[in-house]
Structure formats: structure tokens, C-alpha cells
Amino acid sequence: MKIAIMGAMPEEIAPILEKLGTYRTTEYAGNSYYEASYNGVDLVVAYSKIGKVFSTLTATTMIQHFGCEKLLFSGVAGGINPTLKIGDLIVATKLSQHDLDITAFGHPMGFVPGGSVFVESDKTLIELSKEVAKELGKTVQEGVIATGDQFVHDETVKNNIVKHFNADALEMEGGSVAVVCNAMDIPFFILRAISDTADTDASFSFDEFMESSAIISAEFVMKMVDRLAK
Ligand code: 3QA
Question: What's the confidence (pLDDT) of residue 12?
Fold first, then answer.
């Protein structure tokens, strides 16, 4: 089995590369892909760069060029649901694009003809994450993740995202990765650890906690890989 593990930023995949020991680096379409064999499974690891476009390119490449059969995303997110504190894990049950807007034509936010407001994650991978969480004695909250091409640091923007999508967390890649995987029939799993709460001091909180939260997410995703390898 070949599994894709992606992040958006170097810090989000560094803890994963560390666990692999040795890997082979391939340059493709302006990005680096790291291939390794880990406990009997083939892994392709990459960070896409920030945002929906770069993450779409990377997810597509991992599936179409490298032949990955499942995709796990690991990274950080801005928390919306007040139950989510810095360092807490959230797994996306479904994802939306909060900045996709043709409401001028009477469509709901996040909707374009031929698409859907939400894309649902793979239920088997979510089940597996519950088992892993139990085994580790960790809490992983399930919720809606909203994705858009902006670092949100404003209560009004945040409240609008809640109004339209009832989202629990927000970030800049999950929704686009979900669209790609859904279209190509590839089971996917989006995990994020909270780095900030998308309010006025989000950038400071992000700078302080992104690295530690990225590690929390990466470690959990590698436990998922351990289970998938069995
Ligand atoms: C944005 C990163 C992008 O990949 C999305 C982090 C955490 N908090 C968020 C928030 N709004 C939207 N997304 C997020 N990731 C960070 S850009 C800073 C880059 O610094 C999730 C995320 N509030 C690079 C050095 O200049």
C-alpha cells in the first residue's frame, strides 16, 4: 500500500521525515517529494506550500504521479469552537471552501455548480483515528473544517465562517485536498492541531505554537500509519 502524507509548511512534515530516517527525494512540478518504506508501507511525504492552489497541485501529484492510494494530511489550524485549545487535535468530518463565493447568483457560500458545499472525509480512517486516540489516551475532536486562501485574524471573518459553515476550525488547504481526493476516489484524512484561535493575536499565537502543535499532529498521524501498516 502506498500512502501520501502531506502538510503545507516545512514544519508540518519535519517531524515525519525525522521518523523515517532515510528517504529518497524526487523533484516534481516545482516541489520536493520524499519517498520511504516505513514498517512495510510505502510513504510519499511532501509539504505543498500554503493555500488551496499549491495543496491541490501536491495532492493531485501524490495520487496521479506517485500512485498514492490513501492520503493523510497533518498540520495546524486556527480554532473556532471554543472547546478547542492550543495543541488540541481536530479531525475533519467534512470540509468546505469558505472563500468560494458566487452568492451573487443565489447560490450558498462555498457552492459552485457540479460541486458541493461540503466534502466528507473517509469514515474508516476516522474510525481508525478513534481507536488510535483511545490507545494513546488522547482526545481528538471531530468537526467541520473550513478552508480558504487567507490567514484569518479577525472575529468578524471568523463569525461569518461559523454562520455559513458552522465550522469548528479553519485553515488553508484541507478543503482543496478533500476536493481532489473525493474526485479521484482516494480515502483521505485531515488532522490538525490548534496553533491559534484566528482572532486579533492569531499571528503571535501562530508564531509561538505552530511548531509544537505541528509535532502533536505529526505524531498522531504516524500512529495512524503504524496501524495501517498492520
Ligand atoms: C498559515 C498556514 C497555512 O498553511 C494554513 C497555517 C493556522 N492558523 C490559521 C489561521 N487562518 C488560516 N489558516 C491557519 N495553516 C500561516 S501563514 C504564515 C507563514 O509564515 C493553518 C492555520 N488563523 C511563513 C513565514 O513568513
Answer: 99
How far does residue 151's CA lie from ligand 1's centre (Å)?
Answer: 5
Separation CA 222–CA 28 (nearest Å): 24
> Which of 12, 88, 168, 171 is the catalytic position?
12
CA distances in angstroms from 195 to 139, 157, 174, listed in the order given = 16, 18, 16
Whole-angstrom distance, CA of residue 111 vs CA of residue 128 = 30
2-229, CATH topology level: Rossmann fold (3.40.50)
12 catalytic residue (yes or no): yes
Residue whose Cα lies nearest atom 7 of ligand 1: it is 77
Query: What is the pTM (predicted TM-score) of this model?
Result: 0.98
Q: Tens of pLDDT along 32-76? A: 999 999 999 999 999 999 999 999 999 999 999 999 999 999 999
- Residue 212 CA to ligand 1 centre (angstroms): 14
CB 6 within 8 A of CB 46: yes
